[in-house]
Amino acid sequence: MLRTFAMAGALVICIIGAAYSEDSSIPDLKDPKVISAGRELYLEKHCSHCHGMSGDGGVNLMHRDLSNPNYLFEAIADGRESGSLRMPAWREVLSEAQIWQVTAYVMSINGRTN
Amino acid sequence: MGRRTSAVDFGSAALIGLALLFAAEPAAAQGPAPGTEDPNNWPQYHRTYNGWRYSPLDQIDKSNVGKLKVAWIHQGGDITHGIQETPIVIDGVVYSVTAGNRIAALDGKTGKEIWRFEPKLDPLTKKVLFSPYSRGVTVGRNKVFIGTVDGRGIAVDQKTGKEIWQVQLTDFANCQGCNFTSPPVLANDVLTYGSTGGDLAAAAKIFGVEAETGKKLWEFETIKQDAESWPAESARYGGGGAWLPGAYDPETGLVYYGTGNPGKDFVGTDREGDNLYTDSVIALDPKTGTLKWYRQEIKHDVWDYDSAYEALLLKKDGKDLLVHLNKSGFVFVMDKANGSLQNIWRLSDTINFAKDIDAKTGDLIGRLDPPIGTTTVICPSPFGARSWNPGAYNPKTGLWYVNAMEICDGLTPVMQKTDPKDYGTPHIGSEDFGKLQKVAGHAAGRLDARDPITGERKWTYEMNIPSFGSVLTTGGALVFNGDPLGIIRAFDAESGKVLWNFNTGSGLRSGLISYAVDGKQYILVPSGWGSYAAILMPALFPELEKVPGASTLIAFTLPD
Questions:
Q1: From the list B127, B539, B550, which residue is nearest A88 (CB)?
Q2: What is the pLDDT of residues B37-75, one digit of tens each?
Q3: Domains of chain A
Q4: Which helix (H) or strand (E) holds B478?
Q5: Best exposed site among B150, B178, B374, B444 by fewest CB in 10 Å?
Q6: What is the CATH architecture of B3-557?
Q7: B534 with A84: Cβ contact below 8 A
Q8: Residues contacting B186, CB < 8 A, separation 6+
Q9: pLDDT digit string (tens) for A69-94?
């Protein structure tokens, strides 16, 4: 039973991965221009308020796995509730392209240490 | 990890003149406070209108507090942003409000739920700042009243929890989410509601409402319509939230409120002027909303130094005084009849945003306005010399027990290009909340026992992490205080010695109270870490990152 779930999970990840890699509306998340635009939005919308200018704020991004672009996109778009903390949803504030830009910036933080 | 020290620390350059005059006798020389007639109850936010947070109950005292045990536990539902309330207790019934304005009436002996009311909130509340903060209810006229996080006033039946009326007061959808995070004040047949406003692109208001029907009677704009105080369009988003509960003083017939900071918090270049009535104590006629007097504590604030905190009312040498802590660390002692200054003393040891303050006029001397685009270390930090959670005054000792923190902040003001139109972006003139810093040679947190009028310190208890909860003091000569890691402690009110402690499992961000049912005294502790302190403080205190959220009421009592 566990193996079935594991295979189903892997399949979902593959499908998401395929969707991510084949969706032409998604910008190149490693493009420095996309990352820079994402940083501008990250500051303008005060993501830095909670997460810090470089991701090392009170809700520290460096302590989190930032490698899954789809997960990050959805967290930014739809908000997150974790424990007693709530992050607001940005889907109706930012366009999808802008959310991808912020995603690119957040992913660029991945692997840094503070 | 706390340390207790005894000290006589005048600690203030402003402690001059009249302070010495007042120091001649203890501050306790006054009669019983209104509301203390039934010591078993905790009938309003601070228990009594004078802001004392003092329960006369003395069954639990220094000799037996070490025997306290858990009587009951109640879970309050949604834990988002923890539990921030001060519960109300009347005739053995606990009235509690938790995240999202969920109200419950509980049996004070068992914690068993009698009724529950959960309003359907505007979905926008999931997007706005300061939601779903719920700091308390108001009980009176056979009703339980709340202000909601989507800007409504609601009254329910005290016995059944059934809704009686509701009224939309703020323009919630169009004011960047201005709402109510605190309970209204009941002044006879009028309720007053103070809205949020600071840190948002909004201008706050205080509303007067008929308690029986919910009919709106008046609005008071905390942002004065005055081009000298607010040039050009700056008043439009002036802030000035009255975001904490006010108090109705039956002696004067006035309602006192403190107001919050002007917006944008850290940039004042487009709002040159005093920015009235932000950072002020204001006295209103609750029948009409007419302003009777005001005292602005910080003119043209660029440090986020709200004046929203509690008004502590005391009588001394024939004078009726109002003692008021500003976030800047200065404590203003004023005549409650007109706001005239009697003294100013320092709660914070570390103040650098101004070199000094004129104790006679209240004017700042040598301001340090942080320049735009440059990082400047400002003390105290925008969290203030103390968080919003009130201190407690014990008439037996004449001491005010108050938390303090010594934390600075590296602030970099920026001109926000546009005023935010969405609900999640603050209007503060900075891209973050700065880099919080400890102060060398100072404990980050303290519980102080002070003369409330002179500031003289009788004892202090030092903490590595400051408390973000409210203090309780009792007739049993005890002081109760909790910390963000979840430890609640009982102190000897005279000496500061720790007599008891208990790990509640989550951080304290709320109001501790005491009440009695059938001759048995209880200490009621709302435990549940949350709010912006929970978001921002882990950057300075990494151990807070692992504190779990909760929304739990824990009642303690003595064994039979």
A1: B127
A2: 799 999 999 999 999 999 999 999 999 999 999 999 999
A3: 29-109 (1.10.760.10)
A4: strand B478-482
A5: B374
A6: 8 Propeller (2.140)
A7: yes
A8: B44, B138, B140, B141, B145, B211, B248
A9: 999 999 999 998 888 998 988 998 99
